[in-house]
Amino acid sequence: MINHKGLILLNKPYGVLCQFRDNEGKITLKDYIKEPHFYAAGRLDADSEGLVVLTNDGKQQHLISDPRHKLPKTYMVQVEGQPDEKALQQIQNGLLLNDGPTKPALACLIREPTWLWPRNPPIRFRKNLPTQWIKITLREGRNRQVRRMTAKMGHPTLRLIRFSIGNWTINGLKPGESQWAELPKIPN
User: Fold this and answer.
1) Domains detected in the chain
2) What's the predicted TM-score (pTM) here?
């Protein structure tokens, strides 16, 4: 058990709730993080995978999760169909969603990541509908924002993996694995 302030990086598997309590018997962060008093700095939906940063320091939690601090969050997103440059431009310029316009984001087509693990359950496969991977980097974090953005551009998300938050990544972490990380210095 740790008695000092710290950070834990978790590669959250698909289907895990990004909370520590559940009254319905679902899998939550408590099934992966045994250190007491650690809480997620931001959320990731149950149907999304990847990096969740946890801390036992309230100031750090606020610094990491508050969009005013503009930590970039990078996602690898598998979408239906094959978006063209015009579709990507919508994300790059900002889209109008039902809760207002998004800030401009970085978006580019990529190949399927070589480090990708199989998802359980696998995404639905449709023989006549190709898919494409997109790398998207945001500096804001609204509820299900990436999914809503790709749907708005006409290419619904099939799989979403958060790869990084700021300088922290899931590099080398398999789903369900975690590691300790350095606390950044808080500006005065």
Assistant:
1) 7-67+167-181 (3.30.70.580), 72-165 (3.30.70.1560)
2) 0.92
- 150 in Cβ contact with 156 (< 8 Å): yes
Question: How does DSSP classify residue 23?
Answer: S
- Mean pLDDT taken over the chain: 90
Give residue for tokens 């690898």.
76
128-176 pLDDT, tens digit each: 789 999 999 999 888 899 999 999 999 999 999 999 999 999 999 999 9
Instruction: Report DSSP state, residue 98.
Output: T
pLDDT at 85 over 90: yes
Query: Is 45 marked active-site?
Result: yes
CA distance 182 to 30: 22
Residue type present at position 156: P
Q: 188 pLDDT band (50/70/90 cuts)?
A: very low
Beta bridge partners of 178: 10
Which one from 22, 45, 47, 99 is the annotated catalytic residue? 45
In whole angstroms, give the CA distance from residue 30 to residue 39: 10
Task: Reduce the DSSP state of residue 14 to 3 states and report it.
Answer: coil
